[in-house]
Design brief:
Elements lengths: L2 H10 L14 E12 L6 E12 L3 E5 L6 H8 L7 E6 L2 E2 L5 H11 E5 L10 H11 L4 H14 L15 H13 L5 E5 L7 H16 L3 E5 L3 H4 L4 E6 L2 E7 H9 L19
The structure holds adenosine-5'-triphosphate.
Length: about 280
């Protein structure tokens, strides 16, 4: 059993439920027949329907699909921000439905890192302070939190910018700070929702390279993107439509999809750049 796998059980005090993974790569995220619904009654919206997905340690999975297909909802249930109406979500083997609110919040802080399009950084804090913040909120001593924050900033290639405030950093550098904040404290699952949306294409590719490195270092990474060329950094691509997984492709087929495409976006009508239905 790896040290990382122990994270969740230490956090929650529950016995992990991932004995099924004992001999294979450690599953950091598993969605098992997940339904997710917004609202109730006649206005209820089914955002996810019977979604089953596993992401293991060291794996980079891209999620694509038209607007409204459920991509952000999938990340929200994966990270425990929202509860499924049916099915189960396992994070590092721990079934989220069996946790109290406090346990779930703790697991989110210690195991799951989020990266958003708009960075969500605190402008009045330095890069190091932003990255250290989740650890300090979780009770870490400031000196220890700072040490880990500096390590995380080094890992994403901007250790020398630790003392800068957000308005002294480029968009790409700010996103690296946000990624460092998502991984600080050795969190094992990184959920990124359109993290390059506010960046130019060159900087966006650099951020993809950082996410790829995180996966190569052993994190499970789930990326929501509209950009097929960004999905090309992933090991596997999951396509959603109307809340259902309609296709899963290896990166080889994404590469061939790109090769035959003159554009790099999945269209909002759900067609691929090559014109095929997704
Ligand atoms: N807070 C909410 N209340 C009600 N319905 C919602 C809410 N958030 C999302 N939805 C609905 O759930 C469905 C899935 O939305 P979701 O945001 O997950 O899609 P998405 O694929 O991420 O879309 P986009 O690419 O536009 O960000 C959509 O029909 C959407 O209108």
């Amino acid at each position: 059993m790896s040290a990382r796998r122990d994270d969740a059980s230490l956090v929650t005090g529950l016995t992990t439920a991932s004995e099924r993974n004992a001999s294979g790569p450690r599953q950091v995220l598993e969605l098992d027949c997940v339904d997710m619904v917004y609202g109730t009654g006649p206005t209820a919206v089914a955002a996810l329907r019977q979604v089953t997905l596993g992401v293991h340690s060291g794996e980079f999975v891209a999620v694509m699909g038209p607007s409204g297909s459920g991509k952000s909802s999938l990340l929200a249930v994966a990270g425990g921000l929202d509860q499924p109406a049916a099915g189960e979500v396992f994070v590092s083997g721990t079934p989220m439905s069996r946790l109290s609110l406090a346990q779930r919040a703790r697991l989110r802080r210690r195991v799951v890192g989020y990266v958003f399009q708009d960075f969500n950084l605190v402008p009045t804090l330095t890069a190091a302070e932003n990255v250290a913040l989740p650890l300090e909120l979780d009770g870490a001593r400031p000196a220890a939190a700072r040490t880990q924050a500096l390590e995380a900033l080094e890992k994403v290639g901007i250790g020398e910018l630790a003392g800068r405030f957000m308005d002294q950093l480029s968009g790409g550098q700010q996103q690296r700070v946000a990624i460092a904040r998502a991984i600080v404290g050795s969190r094992s699952l990184v959920l990124a929702d359109e993290p390059t949306g506010a960046l130019d294409s060159v900087t966006g590719e650099e951020v993809m390279g950082v996410l790829r490195d995180l996966a190569d270092d052993g994190a499970g990474v789930v990326l929501v993107t509209h950009e097929a060329r960004h999905a090309g950094w992933a090991d596997r691509v999951v396509f959603l439509r109307d809340g259902r997984i309609v296709d899963e492709s290896s990166v080889d087929s994404v590469d061939s999809l790109l090769a035959s495409a003159g554009t790099a976006q999945i269209h909002d009508d759900g067609t691929s750049p090559s014109g095929g239905a997704r």
